[in-house]
Amino acid sequence: MSEPTASPSPPHRPWSLYLFIAWAGLLAFNAGLRLWIITGPLAQFGSPNTAIGWLGLTLAFVAPFGFGASVYGLWELRPWGRILFLGMTTLFFSFNAVGVWLPGGVSPEIQDPAQMQTARLLATARYSLALVIPLVYFNLGWIKILFRRSTAPL
């Protein structure tokens, strides 16, 4: 009589991966909230007149769905979830870091040029750090192994 075979156990997710899944979920929610806020004035006053305005609007439409899909992909340990999250964070935080240096990119209450420069540098550092952390984390060898295709694709 043959022994029953045990079903393979799901791969162990490190606690740090749960933090990134939560972060992706918050980014999806935040981007969706921004989309809600942005589209109200656009419906009333028309579309933005600049290329950066159009890029921002496009990102506002893509980000909630991209980050939302990456939450599912990260939770299911799909290879595309890792790639999508890295692509979305690169796009999102790079765009935000560039936007800080455009006119109106920092708080309008800041009038002093030295304070404005400091605020821009701090915001750029914050966005750069938010970009570098996932790029380093998801390219660690023991994290990449978790996302190897071990099941049939959907």
Range of helix content:
over 70%
Count, helices? 5
Total number of β-strand segments? 0
How does the helix and strand content classify structurally? Answer: mainly alpha
Using only C-alpha atoms, the radius of gyration works out to: 20 Å
Shape, per Cα inertia axes: globular
Task: Indicate the low-confidence ranges by residue numbers.
Answer: none
| Distance linking N and C termini | 35 Å
Strand content: under 5%
Q: How is the biggest beta sheet arranged?
A: none
* Domains, number: 1
Name the helix and strand elements from N-terminus to C-terminus, one letter apiece.
Answer: HHHHH
As an assembly, this protein is: single chain
Determine the mean pLDDT: 80
List the helices and strands and how they pair.
Elements: H1 15-45, H2 51-75, H3 79-100, H4 113-137, H5 141-146
Could you characterize the architecture of this molecule?
The protein is mainly alpha-helical and 154 residues long. It has one domain. The longest helix has 31 residues. The model has no long low-confidence stretch (mean pLDDT 80).
Which descriptors would you attach to this protein?
single chain, 154 residues, mainly alpha, 5 helices, 0% strand
Short overview:
The protein has 154 residues and is mainly α. 71% of the residues lie in helices and 0% in strands.
